[in-house]
Design goal:
With about 220 residues, this protein is mostly beta strands. The chain has one domain: Cathepsin D, subunit A, domain 1. It is about 15% helix and about 50% strand. It has a 7-stranded antiparallel β-sheet, with no helix packed on it. Strands 9, 10, 11, 12, 13, 14 and 15 form a 7-stranded mixed β-sheet that branches. Strands 4-5-6 form a 3-stranded antiparallel β-sheet, with no helix packed on it. The longest helix has 20 residues. It is globular, with a radius of gyration of 20 Å.
Length: about 220
Amino acid sequence: MINKASFHSILTALIFLVSLASAHATDVSVTGLFNGKAIISVNAGPPRLLSAGQKTPEGIKLLSADSNSATFEIDGKRQTLSLGQGISSHSAPSGKASVSLTADIQGHFLTTGSINGASTLFLVDTGASGIAISASEARHMGISYLNGKRGYSSTANGTVAIYQVVFNTVKVGDITLNQVEGAVIDGNGLNVSLLGMSFLKRLEMKREGSTMTLTKQY
């Protein structure tokens, strides 16, 4: 028979184990892409071939795939990854939200996220002062950028208009920041949203080889 003290010890141990499990991150990386199929590695394990609609025991579901990228549902969130790219979304031991990104074969850190609740593909760019999105992306998100302060910038496609804005919410993985400064770029020269320093300066950034970990600070 288990006495009261033993029961208390067992219960404490179970609570500790549950807390460890909830803090554990599921690392996903893409090692192969085909039409309707993707080869992934979970937690650095052996490669697995998934077809669209299939779900792993860890709860990772492949929604769609082609030769360029694959879209998954991970922990109830949509994530789009290209070949060689990976992601790990979890809470750090301190309780601060954290996300780990893996560089693609060109060394770029790409990740899906959202601005004002609308999904977008981000390129981490420490050389950009703020978040930058195209005018077409802004219209898709319903952002009234024409009300922002107007300026001009020289690009490879010539001089374009820039509108300074403040995004209500910007989210990457489990990290959500409010009132983030950014810009909307007119024209067709920006085909991916830039995740610049107005967002990154509020995070702790650590890079080890091809992995970058972002942790929310405030």
